[in-house]
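HUMAN: Spend a minute on the protein record below and explain its fold to me.
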Amino acid sequence: MTNPIVDPLVEIPDTSATSDLVSIAATVDGAATVTMNRPQRRNAFDADLISALEEAFRTLAGAEGLRVVFVRGAGQVFSAGADLEWMRAAADSSEADNRADAFEMARMLKQLWDLPALTVALVQGGALGGGAGLVAACDLAVATADAKFSFSEVRLGLIPATISPYVIQAIGPRTARGLFATGRVFDAAYAEHIGLVTETVADAVGLDAVQARIAADARACAPGAVEDSKRLVADVHGRAIDRQLMDLTAHRIAAARVGAEGQEGVRAFLEGRKPAWAE
């Protein structure tokens, strides 16, 4: 079976009735772009879109040769958060039904968070509520200067529960408390200042340029080392710097040095050539 990540002429099979809500475009060098396709609803989340995103991320988790995953929203807005009709249905549902519904959102975000490749949100227009949570769940986020962000759930009597682990990881607990408790709208410059966004650009043309640059950067990095580096952050963050942690980090670098990628990378550097994964 042909791998769509390796062969850009092959489309990823449509395995879901809701897959038209999310498209995956893959290039020969391992860059995949996941695009939310509800521009008429400003890419607002409902059960079908959440399911389609989860399926897309699950598909990419098993793709060989994947280097980087970009997440975008079709149209003028990255994501306006929760769909109004979905919210209306939730208000009339039981607590048990709401819990199951919310867990699907949590599962989708975790699927994105666990992707072994580098993940990058490309944000235009705005990312509100769950849309901002999707941004926080990516490794990097680039936004246009006019983009707006908000965790506005408290203004509806709700809380940003399922997105909170990723937002707090991105911006820290104190900033998260302030933004969660006020629901205020903030711009891309402030989003970059607090760490929700890692870079801002002037416009959509700038987003495309950054996408090309990051894809080129990803090609230069050993895919296994990228996955291991992401896991390293999760395993080291928040731990006391003690003998146990020192042993863990020494073990990780030793294993990398004698591993296939480490051997190839160092030899390529010493021989003045590109490593195999960058060819």
